[in-house]
Design a protein that fits this description.
Keywords: Bacterial flagellum, Cell projection, Cilium, Flagellum, Periplasm, Signal. By secondary structure, the protein is of the alpha+beta class. It is built from six helices and 23 strands. The chain folds into three domains: 139 residues, no CATH class; 65 residues, 2-Layer Sandwich (Alpha-Beta Plaits); 78 residues, no CATH class. Helix content is 21%, strand content 35%.
Length: 371
């Protein structure tokens, strides 16, 4: 048997080979990349009034809907303001839109968060209180009722000649501000067949998910039907128990090679599978700088001349002569591509043009998305 020192030396020599031959793949849980079809949120919306503002509410002369809503609310409370409608000049009321998401399996009496947004010309909703507001779904039925004190998390201060605003004071939230009044019926436990929908469709990922489910449950209850869907046949099984076991399984998701470019912000995002064929890149910029330097011209002694200002123009041209020609070898990986472009001194803006040119030359083996 070789001595321990020799064995350690062999391991150190073979370690790099093992790392290269068996690249690690990040595995994630199925619950993080797929959803059970039919288990979804529902959007709710409502119109309401916010009161208690410190003079930062709607102007009733311009916000007609706020005036009408205020009068209607007071009449429902037994206050007759029809005869005094023209004299209503309060600035402490604002009309708002209230939105919320009704989670799946939300039960009557449970609480959900709501978002409140100014509808009129209110300047600040800080310190306001939302009055009772029914929240409706797409079918026109009321599923929740919202009410409570608003929290904007913004700061707004205004003086005679200056103002300071941090955040958005016309948008607010109410934590647990709505009470669920109606449930959305969905009997998950009685479904003999379900489908898992991938958030990022991919055939390889769908096949890996189906294989992982079949290994965990035994048999072939899972089958990938398309890049987005994995069908589950759970007949004769406890549906809830099977889903609880499935969602914690780990698979290695795959993704196509995509390069996303946002020209407005100069942002570039490249996937790990991006490859570049052999291509040569020469990148340089032509910069012309024109500088105007005013100089004072004094007349000679005992002359009748006048002092004048003369502009001296200096023109400098930089053609980027220090830039080099770079060659990217075949099958470059994402890391190699970024390192090579950085070695050429390429900035994000220039890199966008280079990637578009590489794609036009047919050397970029990835989908190029420009936004």
């Amino acid at each position: 048997m070789p001595p321990p020192r020799v064995i350690l030396s062999l391991l150190l020599i073979l370690a790099p080979v093992l790392v290269v031959a068996l690249p690690a793949r990040a595995q994630v849980r199925i619950k993080d990349i797929a959803d059970v079809e039919g288990v979804r949120e529902n959007q709710l919306v409502g119109y309401g009034l916010v009161v208690g503002l410190n003079g930062t509410g709607d102007k009733l002369d311009s916000a007609v809907f706020t005036r009408q809503s205020l009068i209607g609310m007071l009449e429902r409370l037994g206050v007759n303001t029809r005869d005094q409608e023209a004299r209503l000049q309060t600035k402490n009321v604002a009309a708002v839109m209230v939105t919320a998401s009704l989670p799946a399996f939300a039960r009557t009496g449970s609480r959900i968060d709501v978002a409140v947004s100014a509808l009129g010309d209110a300047k600040d909703l800080s310190g306001g209180t939302l009055l009772v507001t029914p929240l409706l779904a797409a079918d026109g039925e009321v599923y929740a009722v919202a009410q409570g004190a608003l929290a904007t998390g913004a700061i707004a201060a205004r003086g005679a000649n200056a103002s300071v605003t941090r955040g958005v004071p016309t948008s607010a939230r109410i934590a647990n501000g709505a009470t669920v009044e109606r449930e959305v019926g969905y009997q998950l436990a009685s479904k003999p067949a379900l489908r898992l929908g991938l958030r990022n469709p991919d055939l390889t990922t769908a096949r890996r998910m189906a294989e992982a489910v079949n290994r965990a449950l035994g048999g072939t209850p899972a089958r990938a039907t398309d890049p987005r869907t994995v069908a589950l046949d759970l007949a004769g099984r406890d549906v809830v128990d099977a889903l609880a076991r499935i969602e914690d399984l780990r698979v290695a998701p795959d993704s196509p090679a995509v390069v996303v470019i946002d020209e407005a912000s100069g942002t570039i995002v490249m996937g790990a599978n991006v490859r570049v064929s052999t291509v040569a890149i020469a990148q340089g910029n032509l910069t012309i700088r024109v500088t105007e330097t005013p100089e004072v011209s004094q007349p000679g002694p005992l002359s009748n001349g006048t002092t004048t200002t003369v502009n001296r123009t200096n023109v400098q041209v930089d053609d980027g002569a220090d830039k080099k020609l770079g060659i990217l070898n075949a099958n470059f990986t994402l890391r190699d591509l970024v390192a090579s472009l950085n070695a050429l001194g390429v900035g994000p803006r220039d890199m966008i043009s280079i990637l578009q040119s590489i794609k036009a030359a047919g050397a970029l083996q990835a989908e190029l998305q420009v936004r």
